[in-house]
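Why show two proteins at once? Because comparison is the fastest way to build intuition. When a single record is shown, students tend to memorize it. When two are placed side by side, the eye starts asking what differs. So, the first record is below.
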Amino acid sequence: MDSGDTAWLLISSALVLLMTPGLALFYGGMVRSKSVLNMMMMCFGAIGVVGVLWLIYGYSIAYGDSLGYLLGDPGEFFGLSGLMGPDSAGEYALEGTVPASVDVAFQAMFAVITVALIAGAIADRARYGAWLLFAAVWATVVYFPVAHWVWGGGWVEEIGTVDFAGGTAVHINSGAAALALAVVLGRRKGWLKEPMKPHNLPLVMLGAALLWFGWFGFNAGSAYAADGVAGIATVNTFGATAAAMLGWLLIERIRDGHPTSLGAASGIVAGLVGITPAAAHVDLWGGLAIGFVAGILCALAVGLKYKFGYDDSLDVVGIHMVGGLVGTAMIGLVATEAIDGENNGLFYGGGIELFGLQLVGAVGVMIYSFVLALIIGFAIQKTIGFRVSEDVEVGGIDESEHAEVGYEFGPSGSRRVAAATSAGAGAGPKTEGSKA
């Protein structure tokens, strides 16, 4: 065990966990005020459901001994058997140079945010209980096996597809599922007919900032060591994201006449997504190119929903699926063995083979996730119901699903506080020092 590597991965785990609350702020600011709590609760709900399942059997499915290159043995580490304490010799199980329990925690955060990302596509119209059920089933049959495909010895890793920190397993995976659920739940009432603008852009900017902050743990932490690889991943995560923001703003300036704060925040996320699979495989120029291209293509891709008619509420498909595809594919163009010691993309004299392998892995994950999410979503819709009623959607999903609202504008603040004050009006005069 290396104490420096262990400390870095513990810190990275905390940074990646922070990304999900950051995502809740990012998504929460983008919806209308009547849906802000529901959107944030969908993100936090993913922490609860996926976190528990990951600890019980998810880690084992992802990282247990491979069964036909499709999934890990679910029973090998069931309940984290053999990973949570010292053996008879007083030694802890290791994953590389860190305790296996630290690896469990670090990878748990990836599982959580992957599911939370999907929620943005179905904002304003999903029943909360149905969402939690979907999160549990999709994580079990899609994310856990796909994590095994990419990092646990499964077929994607076996054929030679490169994915440093989650372009396929996290972003293409969640983006494809988001597209499937947008199809299952259909369009929001009034979509394309009435304005559905973000209700709180400062909240969006704050969320984007927290995502960028946490993403250094996401990418640099994936080096599993406090070393030069982590340094390369950190530099590329910063540079590519900055370039992507500029690329997105450039498109807005040319297309719409104005660079916007929402565009800056979205460009940041697009760059983070694009560089994730490539962070430790490209040099400075490759990282900047990936970021800039991701910013431009994602800015253009978010408009596809209007052309094809699917209501991806918060552009999960346009940013995460497209950004993940850009970053994963461009490894085949700009990866260099001068950085990772083994991979040269087409532009660095490596030929077309790596590019082809990148596409095979990316498309395989995309199709699998889309089809399974479509099946799960339709099954939930036809049984317990996935979409809220029209009255609930119009009136506001926060009050219906959570008996709360994000903002109270009445003269007494909260209606419940006002009611309690009224009920206690005959309780006698306030004593000195009591609260007003």
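Second record. Ask yourself what differs from the first in the token line.
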Amino acid sequence: MTGTTAGHVVVAPDKFRGSLTSPEVAAHVAAGLRSARREHVVLLPIADGGDGTVDAVVASGFTRLETHVTGPVGERVLAAYAVRDEPDGRVAVIELAEASGLRRLSEAAASAPLTATSRGTGELVAHAVRHGATRIVLGLGGSACTDGGAGMAQALGVRLLDAAGNDLPPGGAALRDLHAIDVSGRLRGFEVVVASDVDNPLLGPYGAAAVYGPQKGATPEDVAVLEAGLARLAAVAAHASGLPGAVEHSHGLPGVAEEGRAGRAMGVAGRPGAGAAGGVGFGALAFLHAEIRPGIGYLLDLLDFDRHVAGARLVITGEGSIDAQTLRGKAPVGVAAAAAAHGVPVVAVCGRRSVGDEELRAAGIEAAYALTDVESDVRRCMAEAGPLLERLAGRIAAAFLSP
């Protein structure tokens, strides 16, 4: 391999799930590089909108704030988000997993697919807006709920009512009883950008309930219940004043629900990303008039990646597992594409990898270095990821960075 001879090195990894946060990965790689050679290293931990997004942006200069909100099964949890003041207003980065994620479920409450709520995510949005945020960047991923963003909307003043005029209880199952939506009290004065790489629609065989419900403990019977609730939410939202049409060509609610279950829903429910995070993507589109942007691309813009990579000699990215999912546009491939625009080569670090060199190069990554290359015991790789990363960084320095 030919080493590069000018400029700095940008270290821009995602997290190693279950082992190291993205700032920790970046710090260990940088330590290994500096131990091997005197390198000017720029640390730029990254994320794609899923878990770890708040950690990544805080490491890049955002301020971390914390507040108590409602967890996915109703308990109070301490959740964080990040803010930064910009010339056009305050930006808040909110990670759904912080308030409404699977990792918030205790072992005793690990199976709550019908009642888990996104309410805490809405409470984080409300807290940020009341503390001056005018733009919300909402990262979706790792959700415990399949409620179509209903809980989030309720926390922001939207009323979801049954036929008797009562507010619905939490969870996706309760949406089957939805009769009317009142948006007159919704919190306003802010814009929302959803950072997500998920392209599933809300309904149908590729929708939120069918694809992601089982990951949250839903049985086939539960999936049918959740699908019916989400279809009802989409249908009623299509008729609610002040909301964009959730389903087009609707001529009576029952028919719309059937059409949704057949996967033919149009409008907001059928948009790519509406099914993200148990349908919270739909809730953001329908109730908050959000714009959905590709997660890694938007976060790289937010972190000013182009400025940091200009003039660099090498970019080191990575994530816990580099596999077929990585090649479909996850964080390392997004970094590689952004670096390629500047003509900067990219290598990756990971815990393990299951794709070949040719596939990596086709994705813009010249090489990938795995912890399993230096330690065959996977448990030790997890426990000793930091020191092993430093060893890998020494190998990268020898191969790609000229003296």
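One difference worth noting in the second protein: The longest helix spans residues 220-238.
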